[in-house]
Amino acid sequence: xxxxxxxxxxxxxxxxxxxxxxxxxxxxxxxxxxxxxxxxxxxxxxxxxxxxxxxxxxxxxxxxxxxxxxxxxxxxxxxxxxxxxxxxxxxxxxxxxxxxxxxxxxxxxxxxxxxxxxxxxxxxxxxxxxxxxxxxxxxxxxxxxxxxxxxxxxxxxxxxxxxxxxxxxxxxxxxxxxxxxxxxxxxxxxxxxxxxxxxxxxxxxxxxxxxxxxxxxxxxxxxxxxxxxxxxxxxxxxxxxxxxxxxxxxxxxxxxxxxxxxxxxxxxxxxxxxxxxxxxxxxxxxxxxxxxxxxxxxxxxxxxxxxxxxxxxxxxxxxxxxxxxxxxxxxxxxxxxxxxxxxxxxxxxxxxxxxxxxxxxxxxxxxxxxxxxxxxxxxxxxxxxxxxxxxxxxxxxxxxxxxxxxxxxxxxxxxxxxxxxxxxxxxxxx
Length: 430
Fold this sequence. Notes:
Elements: H1 3-47, H2 51-68, E1 76-77, H3 80-114, H4 126-143, H5 145-149, H6 159-171, H7 177-199, H8 208-222, H9 250-283, H10 292-308, E2 315-316, H11 318-326, H12 333-354, H13 358-373, H14 375-382, H15 386-401, H16 404-429
Antiparallel strand pairs: 1-2
Helix pairs in contact: 1-2, 1-3, 1-8, 1-11, 1-12, 1-13, 2-10, 2-12, 3-4, 3-9, 3-10, 4-13, 4-15, 4-16, 7-8, 7-13, 8-13, 9-10, 9-11, 15-16
């Protein structure tokens, strides 16, 4: 066979591989976009920044971090953990102050990458991270009470106090049955579709969250159910910014930015670690681990870009990253495609998106919190050693009762103390 024939075959093989990879990335990116749409809307509403802000964050942060981050599979955007942090911050600084706080937080994350601080996340004990995840799931669920009951949110910034205030507000009024029914039916559709696609492989790539949103939105419209809707999205000025300096003290800005930067760094690197584990199981020797310091710089730039364009701080999203990997993504192009598909959704069918009931979003987020909590993982963590069990539960409790950053700090301290006690006990028994 001549050299020219070999060259032709090589080019054909390369071209075939390119289109095969592109096909996988198109399917994965589109699937993630369908999953990300209701989550972006829900997290935007729950944070207090608004549905449009959640969409901007998913589009802009997903695109920037996908191109510049250190992971080939990480999907970035608004997350439940960041919402937990943002809600009290937005209550304090307002949406106008969020731009400045977000930009400063993004700069801090970029600097942490430049100073190569990404490796320190490896020092966080796994039991603390598992407790952190459980706490986030509980907080996300509690944050949905105002949407489930269609009642005024309780006053305050602490999760438990807000939830208790919301319940008190609900007790003072007649129960709103329709939103509660819509939430229940949304969860039913979501669970039912998950069971159905487990039996029918051809349906495996169609996400349950997307089906639940479509079915329940159509049902509420067809039967004219009296439930609140997201409302029209401001698509004409979706990517806009207000550069006026908010009336905030420097201390307030710096404290809020440090909290956001700490969470954004930790959650992004943890999500990238989870993605690495999944890809390694799938690809074996072809696996390429993420680069933590580049990942931090990419996430920081993504948060800056999203904040400047009317969004909010973003992080790597564990659930969407998992969907990306399981949907067959091969390169970082899948993440970019996810952002472009979301942009098409917003610009072309913004009116339809505005018709989604807030109760449907609450149902989707309740389902997401259940998946994040993962009952199987809970039981596994409760069957570990006494010291691991205590640090796991202490972290989760601190996250729910105080906040995320203090939750991690308390969890680490408890883990160290319990490990020392275990060592002393073993030494004394000898």
